[in-house]
Design goal:
Strand order of the largest sheet: 1-2
Helix content: over 70%
Shape: globular
Order of helices and strands: HHHEEHHHHHHHHHHHHHHHH
Largest sheet: 2 strands, antiparallel
Number of helices: 19
Length: about 425
C-alpha cells in the first residue's frame, strides 16, 4: 500500500487545483492528461530505464565537475585563508575544504558565465526551442507558454521571461499565469548545481533527482495552471514556437563578462537572503519557545514544529515513509514560507534529518523550485520591468502562480514516489 499512497497525493493536488479553478467548465482535459502523461514518461525513463538513468547519473557527475572547475577560480581568489578540512584539521582553502559562501559564489558565477556563452552562440535558444516544440506538439499549449516553461529549467525565473519578451504584451492571462508558474516550479541551472554539490558534501546523490525535478516541473506547471486558470481567450502563439536566437553580446568575452557579473549579483543575493532569513528564523524560534513555555515547560514551540503539523497531510499523501513524514513536512513549510535554499541547507546539513531513500527523493523533488513568497515579489518586479503595462495583471496572478508552482513540484515528487 505504501507505494500507492501517492495516488491520494495526486488526487489531493489535482483536487485543490480544481476547487481553486476560476472556470471549471473551460478546463481543457486534453492538456491536463497529456501533461500528466508527459510527467509520468519522464519519471519512468529516468527511474526505470537503465541507460536513461545512467545518462542522468553522468549528467550528475558532470555537474560535480563544474563545481570542481569553479573551485579553481575560487582557490585563486581565496587562497591563503585557513579553513577546517575536517576532524579539526586547519588547512589552506585552495588545498581542500568547503566554505559555503566561497564555493556557492564560484559555482553560480561559472554556470551563469557558461549559460551566457551558450546563449551568445545560439546553443541555449536552440535547445530550449527544440524541447518547447516537442511539448507544444504533445500538450497543444501555446508557443509562448512552452518556451518560457522549458527555459525556466535552464535559466532564472526572470531570464526565462526575457526569452519571450516580444509576446509578453499580448499574452492572455492564462498564458501569463502558466509562464509565471513554470518559472516558480523550476529552478535555474546555477542553483541546481549548487544544491547537487551541497548534497554531495553530505553523501547524498541529489543531482539526478534535481535534474528530473526540473524537467518534470515544466509540464507539471502547465497542468496545474490550466486547471486553475483555463484558457478562454485567443492566443497569438497557439500552434507554433518561434524563438529569436540573436545574441545581446558583442563577442564571447563580452558574454563571459556579463554572465560572470550577473552570477555574482545572484550569488550575493543568495548569501544575503540566507543570513537574513536564518537570523530571523532564530529570532522567531526564540520567541515561540518563550511563548510556548509560558503555557507549559514541556511545550517547545518552533517554526519547524508548526510547519511539521501544517504540512503533515501533504507529506503523508505524497507517499513519504512514516518515519520521515514530519521532517519532510517541516522542509515543505520552510521552502514555501522562507525559501528553497534554507530548506536544502537544512536537508543536506541533516538539521532536519530524512533517513529513507524514498523520503529523500520525494522531498528533493518537492522543494526543487523557486515557489516561495519572496520569489513572487521578485517575479512581479522583474517581469513588470519588461512590460510595465502588465504589472496589474502580474500582481493579481502572483499568489495563484505561487500555488501552481508549489502544487506542480508536489505533483512531480508524488509521481516519482509512486514509481520508486
Amino acid at each position: 500500500m505504501g507505494r500507492f499512497t501517492g495516488l491520494f497525493g495526486i488526487a489531493l493536488i489535482l483536487g485543490i487545483a480544481f476547487l481553486m479553478s476560476n472556470n471549471k467548465r473551460k478546463i481543457n482535459y486534453r492538456v491536463v492528461l497529456s501533461g500528466l502523461l508527459l510527467q509520468v514518461i519522464i519519471a519512468v525513463l529516468v527511474f526505470k530505464v537503465p541507460f536513461v538513468r545512467h545518462f542522468f547519473e553522468m549528467l550528475g557527475h558532470g555537474m560535480e565537475k563544474i563545481e570542481h572547475f569553479a573551485f579553481q577560480g575560487a582557490s585563486f581568489v581565496y587562497g591563503g585563508l585557513g579553513v577546517d578540512k575536517g576532524n579539526g584539521v586547519i588547512g589552506n582553502y585552495n588545498s581542500g575544504g568547503f566554505v559555503f559562501a566561497f564555493n556557492v559564489t564560484a559555482t553560480i558565477i561559472l554556470v551563469c558565465a557558461l549559460v551566457a556563452v551558450f546563449y551568445h552562440f545560439g546553443i541555449m535558444q536552440r535547445i530550449v526551442s527544440l524541447i518547447a516544440r516537442a511539448m507544444n506538439f504533445i500538450m497543444r499549449v501555446s508557443g509562448a507558454e512552452a518556451l518560457s516553461n522549458v527555459a525556466s529549467a535552464f535559466v532564472g525565473q526572470v531570464e526565462a521571461q526575457v526569452m519571450i519578451r516580444p509576446y509578453l504584451k499580448t499574452m492572455t492571462k492564462s498564458e501569463l499565469l502558466a509562464s509565471m508558474s513554470g518559472s516558480l516550479a523550476c529552478i535555474a541551472g546555477g542553483i541546481l548545481v549548487v544544491y547537487a554539490k551541497m548534497g554531495a558534501q553530505a553523501g547524498m546523490d541529489l543531482a539526478p533527482k534535481l535534474i528530473t525535478a526540473s524537467l518534470m516541473a515544466a509540464p507539471g506547471a502547465l497542468v496545474i495552471s490550466k486547471i486553475l486558470y483555463p484558457e478562454t481567450e485567443e492566443s497569438q502563439t497557439l500552434g507554433h514556437v518561434k524563438l529569436d536566437v540573436k545574441s545581446n553580446y558583442s563577442n564571447v568575452i563580452d558574454a563571459i563578462s556579463h554572465g560572470a557579473a550577473d552570477g555574482f549579483k545572484i550569488a550575493m543575493n543568495v548569501i544575503a537572503m540566507l543570513i537574513g532569513f536564518i537570523a530571523i528564523i532564530a529570532l522567531l524560534d526564540a520567541l515561540l519557545l518563550w511563548t510556548g513555555q509560558l503555557f507549559s515547560p514541556d511545550l517547545n514551540l518552533s517554526l519547524n514544529y508548526i510547519f511539521g503539523k501544517i504540512f503533515y497531510p501533504f507529506a503523508w499523501a505524497m507517499g513519504v515513509p512514516s518515519e520521515d513524514v514530519n521532517s519532510v513536512a517541516t522542509l515543505l513549510g520552510q521552502k514555501i514560507t522562507v525559501n528553497e535554499f534554507v530548506a536544502f541547507l537544512n536537508l543536506t546539513s541533516k538539521t532536519v534529518p530524512v533517513v529513507t531513500e524514498k523520503g529523500l527523493m520525494i522531498v528533493s523533488i518537492a522543494i526543487c523550485g523557486f515557489a516561495n513568497f519572496s520569489s513572487v515579489g521578485m517575479q512581479i518586479g522583474g517581469i513588470g520591468a519588461l512590460v510595465p503595462e502588465r504589472r496589474a495583471d502580474l500582481a493579481k496572478l502572483g499568489l495563484k502562480a505561487l500555488l501552481c508552482g508549489t502544487l506542480a513540484s508536489y505533483l512531480s515528487a508524488t509521481i516519482a514516489g509512486i514509481l520508486m
